[in-house]
Amino acid sequence: MVFVLGIDIGSAQSKGIALGGQGSLGSFECPSGGDFKLTAEKLRGELLSQSGKTENDVSRTVATGYGSKLVFFADEIKPDIVCLAKGVSSLHPTVRTVIDVGDLYTKVLRTDGNGSVHNFLLSGKCAGGSGRILQVIARVLRVRVEEMGDLSLTSQKRVDFNTGCAVFAETEAISRLSQEVKKEDLLAGLHRALAAQINSLAERIGVEPDVAMTGGGARDIGLVRAFKEIRRHDILVPTDPHMIAALGAAIMALEGIEQ
Amino acid sequence: MSLKQSGAFSTVETYYNDYGQRAKELNREGKKVIGYVCSFVPLEIITASGAIPFRVRGSIHEPITRGDTLLETIVCPYYRSCFDLSVKEKYAFLSGMVIPHGCDSMVRSFSAWSYGLPLSYFHFVNIPSVCEESSLEFFGSELNTFRKSLEKFTGKAITEENLDQAIRVHNENRDKVRALYEFRKTDPPLISGTELTMTLTAGSSLPVEESNSLFDQALTEVKGRGNSPLKKGPRILIDGACLDNIELIQLVEELGGNVVTDTICNGTRDHFPKADADGNPIDALAHRYLDKINCPKTYRSNKAGTFEGDIENRFGDIGTYAREFNVDGAILYVYKYCDPFGFEVPARKVYYQSLNVPLLHLEDIYSAGTMGQLRTRIQAFLEMIG
Amino acid sequence: MAEEQKEAKPKKRMTATKAAASIGPMVKEFITGTLQAKAEGKQKVAYTFIVCHHEEIFRALDVMPVWTENFAGICGAKRDAERFLQRAESLGLSRSLCTYALCGIGFDQWREELGGMPPDAPWGGQVRPDFMISSGQILCDPRSKWYQASQQFMPDVPIYNIDLPYPLFQRNQDHRDVWSYYHQYIVKQLRGLVAFIEEQTKKKMDYDRLRELVNLSDRTWNLIDETYKLRRAVPCPMGTGDAMNTMVPINFMMATQKAYDFFVDLKKELEEKIVRGEGEVENEKYRLMWGGGLPAWYALSDFNYFNSKGASFPVETTYRMVAPLHDMDLPETKDPIEHLAWRWLGYWTFWFDKARKRPGSEPDVERLINWIEEYKIDGVVMHEAFSCRTWHVGLIWQLHQLAKIYKPIPVHVIGKDGKKEKVFKELPSLILESDIIDITSYSEVDTRNKIDAFVGALESIRANRAA
Q1: What residue of A is the nearest CA neighbor of C419?
Q2: What does the pLDDT read at residue A164?
Q3: Residue A162 to residue B69, Cβ atoms within 8 A
Q4: Where does A97-236 have alpha helices with state H?
């Protein structure tokens, strides 16, 4: 019986998916921590126990993500943009543009419904914001990252944030707080600024509909809404958007066996 | 500190806040408005063509977004902002645009501008990097090329008389600016730095004749003032490139300083030098823009053979202003990624030492987001020299 | 010894050609040569910049050029630029400025303060010049500011700044309508340079010798063009990694017999490799163009990393500062100075006519399109060096415009109705980000992750390419 693993070791969060011939048998995520190797072992252990399998049952493992080279039990390592295209296309074949908001980078890629990548762009040092800025601001505001989206939606009076650069955003947020700006208004402003930056990044290589948003950032409903407002069209967010690269990796593991 | 809301300055504030308001109207009336960036674009030629020169401005409050789609973030942040606002169609009333070789950021982004904006007229003016007989001659030819391209665009010849007339009226504008600066000489100055820079910025969005009458109103009003809008405080010179958002100057004055003079583009750099009114107008313009505009972009050869002599030659105008306006301290405000100014910082520092004028050097990114950081540093500086 | 390295000695880049491997010692030799010339005092040494078309004038008057961009690059390649950059910063210079210049100014200030070379100066250090020839160009602002800033620390060393403009491409203007006054001006600037150097060296220009040297570099230009065109072969015998070595004779040794001979040898070597079917990489899978940007000198081994993925670089826009003269149609002249000025204009306007013919094109974009076709390119790689506006502003726009007007890749996509349809897509591109010599801007992990992703995209396009 076919049983494969897709492991995505991100710079902040690690994700894994176990697939059998009939579909998903398990999924798990945990912080990447300092030791990617250990994290990968932990993910595998958890996926095996969820699916009731042993190491010997695994037909193939594909690893992806920032720390993928440290997944020593992987049969193959695939770049995350390739896995993202694969994962999204398997769920939503009409998607042509994927915007993945990760911790370290925002990635924009163009695909075709077959899961192949035509072109892509990664956010640069200062150009387009990545998800990290959300964590930085969460710390400043003393709110949990998971709460930021809902909080942002309650804003009545969004502040205009001048910068999407993480370094300046932090000082700007602190100085705004000292002016007694409400947290939700500040968050709404931040989401807007970040979404605008991500959009300019995406426009660099062109945006073809349909557009999907993935990655940890896509779990932030405030960011997704801000992005929709800027683009003035709907954005598809898959269920568990942060698991898409892991899903793509698992699908590629399946395809690897079929070949 | 609040602005005195009376006649002239309330008009100034309207034009400053709704920048381009008048140009939009003129465009609706069928006039051609030609946008430009940088002090090196010879405005007299635009005016002589019957079109209206309009200085494109940035905004430190507007995050740069669409501009980043086409332009690298290593471009001068001021210039990125100008580009961003332009591609966001803030200046959709323009009929054309002129960009000079003011710096690498301008040269290398010319394609992005000319394809990014849907304008029917675009022209690049090459500015020599040295000032000598052969470069003045070359620049004269380059100005004639510009003249011809405008003639083609407007369908109307630009005569010597048109140029002479344009030179006269632009020189008048510069005389009025000088007169406004005269009011900064009292202690405290009769016109605040915030008012003055706002006035000049507003002026650069108007046809020169209208700018002249606006400046006349401002002059009359300031002359009639009994009191200064400011309290006595350290008298500050601002040294740098284009500062078309008044927040920095406002901040200095809020913290008790009086901004009394500057070297900035929308200040003395643009407005003090006049073109010679007699003789060949193109020669006069070549001479004004290449020799009289003192921008670090133009290489001035070291004729003295000593460092001290060289900086006196290059920065002498700063010394003149410092004495003329009785300056207590200076702020050298340089944008990140600005090569022309950036490379002069060490030499300028020495020059200020030689003048005995205390100096605060700030590097900034053209964003309202950094004002908080600047506040602390400016406050400390003003306390130190106060 | 200078050879002993700070902690992280860069991995030595493997070269594909013997010629490229011979470059390292050559560079070291001319750095040593400048130190020796200065010590002996027989020959004047002068700071100057590459791409000024003035080498012939230097050599005809026996002046030894010190290429200050080269020395900064060496500091970068040896991962020993940081201390000079920090010194420049302590003078008040921002790290956002051209880091070549910062490194050079930091080094000069240190050398002048010590009255001798800074400790462990790379390859013996950069010699104190007799004079400096800077250049104001439409190409680069720091060129006319760098030596001026350095002069603060050596005020007795005179500067001559030559201005070398060229007409910028404007769609509605034929550059030939304006180039005669450009030519006149450049000629005057170059004659001014001759007069300045004559005064400094107390020598008179021998115009016959100058004519011979101009002729030699003209022949070298054409030879380089022929040699580089051999890289069109599949598999490609020499990549951009090697070209970052062979840029040395192009940019630092022009107007010497040695540069000419170097390309005679390289041409022969490439021809032999082509006959043997030997490529830069063993199994060439992808052919990439280095489409813009100066390289990160401390990370040239990234080219080997590309190679390890089966990617070869048959062509690059960087440092190929020559174009075939026979395709230029330059006005004839017997005067070598006038010829130099025409060659300058001919080089910078080389792609203008072609660009004007294709809607939406520009010279830089036109060159990309032409070379994509001539060299059978699968993808474009660019490098954004944060400190240099000269070569790195406009790259995003070029890629954007390229994608807009040029879509060479046929693919099948699944339409909304679930049916397959054939569409044409643009060439994929990759932008790497760091700096020419500021290693603090570079992350090997990030860079290689990006390269992996790019190769992944190339693979996926290859698999889905429609007939």
Answers
A1: A113
A2: 59
A3: no
A4: 132-141, 145-153, 166-178, 183-205, 221-231
